[in-house]
Amino acid sequence: MNNISELTTVPQLLRNVVQTIHSPEDTFLIRKVKENWEEISFKTTLENADAISAYFLEIGINKGDRIAFIIDNCPEYVYYDQGLQQIGAINTSIYPTLSEAEIEYILLDAGAKTILVGTPFLLKKILKIANHCPDLIRIIPAFEDFNKITSNSKINAGIIGLSDLIKEGNNALPKYADEINKRRSLVHSSDISGLIYTSGTTGTPKGVMLTHANFVENVKVCLQQIPVIGNHETFLSFLPLSHVFERTATYHVCCTMGCKIAFAQSLELLAKNMGEVKPTVMSCVPRLLEKIHDKAIKGGTAAGGTKAKIFTWALAIGKEYREIKEAGKKPGFIISAQHSIAEKLVFSKIKEKTGGRLKFMISGGAALPKNVGEFFGDLGIKILEGFGLTETSPVMSVTEYHRQVYGTVGRVIPGIEVGIQDVETKKFINIQTHDTFNEDFVCEEGEICVRGHCVMKGYWNKPEETAEVIDTDDWFHTGDVGRFYKGNLQITDRIKNMLVNAFGKNIYPTPVENTYLKSPKIESIFLIGDKREYVTAIITPSRETLQETFSLEDAFFEMPDLFIEDENIINWLADDIKKFSPELAKFERIKHFIVKRNPFTIEEGDITPTMKPKRKVIEKKYLTYIDEMYNTAVEAD
C-alpha cells in the first residue's frame, strides 16, 4: 500500500516506492543510448545515490550546503539529486543556457560547494569562472574524456568525473552507510530542499528557497486533484529539471508514484522520441502545443479537396461531441457514430504521432490559448492546465481530470487559499479554497495572491525582497492578474506587463498576443504601446511557413538585417492581423508592426530560460526601430 500521506521529505519518496509499490529491480529511468533505449532500475538509482552521498560526506559536505547542477535532463541528474537530498544538502540547479556572468553570480550568491557539469561546452564555461567562486571545492563532469579540456587548467577546485566519483563513493560506502541513514532521518520537512534562481524578466535573479514540505505537499495535493495517475505510467521528460515545473510535475510525481521517466534526447528529437517511448503522461508548455496545433491544421488542410473537407468535418464533429459530454449529457447514436468515423479517419492518425498512449498532457509555464486547448479537446487529447510560480512550488491550481473549463488554469489545490486583490485599493475581492469551489462562481479581476503550504520560505539572502512579496498576513503576492471564472482560476497577465496607452487605457499584452497567435503565419508577437497613442508590435513569422510561401533559402535568415522590409511579406502578415483584429477592442488592435527576421533568444538576452520576454530589455534594445515605426507609420483605420 502506497501511503504517501505519511511522507514529509524528498528522500523518503523514492525509498517508499521500493518498499511499498515496486521491486527494486523494476525500471525507473529510461534513456536513449545510440539507437536503443536503456532501462535503469530503482536499485541502480539508489545505489548510485548512496555512492554520491558517501563521497560528499568524505569531502566534508554538510547539511544545508548548496550543491550545484548545470546539466540537461538525464539519469545522472537524478542520482546526484537523490544523493544530496538524503544527507540534507540543497539542490541548486542552474539553467544550461545562462551566460558565464549569470552562472558566476548564482555560484557566488549560493556559495555552492560542488557543481555537476553536463557537457564539454558547459565545462569550458565553468572553468573560466571557477576561480572566482571561492566556495567551490569540486567540479564534476558527467561525461568521459573531460581531461582533454581540463588538462592545462589551473583551477583551485578539484576535478573528478562522475563515474570516478561514484567508484570512490562505493569504496567509502561501508564507512558511511550508517551515517547516510542517520542523515536521512534528520532531514526535516522545514529544511530547504531546493534553491531555484528566478529567471528574472527584470532585475537580478533571486534564489527561491523551497523546502521539503513545499515539494512533498505540492505533489500530494496534485495527485489528490488528478487521481488518475497510476504507478505504471511512463512520463517523457523534456522540460528542464532546473525549472520547478518539470521537477515537481514529472520528477517528484514519478518519485512518489513509482512511474517511469524517459528522458527525451532534445527538443528537436521530441516528436521522434514520443513515437518511440509512447508516453502516457507529459508535462509541456503552451508553445509546444501551439506548434502541434499549427502543424496538424496545416497537414490536414494544405492539400485541399476531399482530404481537407474530411479533416474540417472531423474537427466539427469532435467539437460537437466534446461539448455534449462537457455539458454532462450522453452523446446520441448519430453523433457517436460520426465521432467513431472521425476518430478512425483523422484523430487516431494525429494521436499516433504522440505514441498513441497519452492519457493527458499537463501544460504550465504560461497561459494556453483557449482555441488551442479546445482543438486538443476536439481530438480527444486531454490537456490539463496548471498555474503557479517558482515561489509557489509551483502549483497553485490545476485542471481536474473530469472537469474542463478552457481558458482557465483549474481548481485551487487543497490546503491553500487563493485571493483576488484589487490592484488599486488592495482590498480582497474574493478568497477561494479547494473546498469552496463552485462551478458557477465568477468574480472581478485583480492581483492573484496565495497563502498556504505551497509558498516559499523566502529569497536566499534577501529578506527585504522577501518582505516585498510576502506580507505580514503571509499572503504571497504573485504579480499576476486574474479572476475566478466558473470556479476555476483564470489568468489575465502580469501586472508589470500591463501597457497604459496615451489615453489611459490599460492593455494586458498576453491576451492580445494570443489572439494574433492564432495565425499559422506568426511564430511570436511582442506588443508595444505603453504611453503611446496606439498599439504596435514586433512580429516574428513562422520560418517554415514563410519559407514555403515565398520559396526562401536558409540564407535569407542569415542576413545581417535584423528586420525584414519586403513589402510582400509585410502585406502577407498584415492580412492575418486584419483578420483577427475584430476580436479585440479597438484600442487593443495592432495598427502597425515591424517584422523580425529571427526569433528572440535566450543567448541574446531577450527572453528568459522559461521563454518569457524581457519586456524592458526588448523595448530598450530595439527602441530605434520602434521609434522609427511610430514616426513613419500611418495609422490604419
TrEMBL record:
Entries under Pfam families matching the protein: AMP-binding (PF00501), AMP-binding_C_3 (PF23562)
Cross-referenced InterPro entries: AMP-binding_CS, AMP-dep_synth/lig_dom, ANL_N_sf
PROSITE patterns: AMP_BINDING
The keyword ATP-binding is annotated on this UniProt entry: yes
Residues annotated as domain AMP-dependent synthetase/ligase: 23-460
Transmembrane segments: none
Keywords linked to the UniProt accession: ATP-binding, Nucleotide-binding
Protein name: AMP-dependent synthetase/ligase
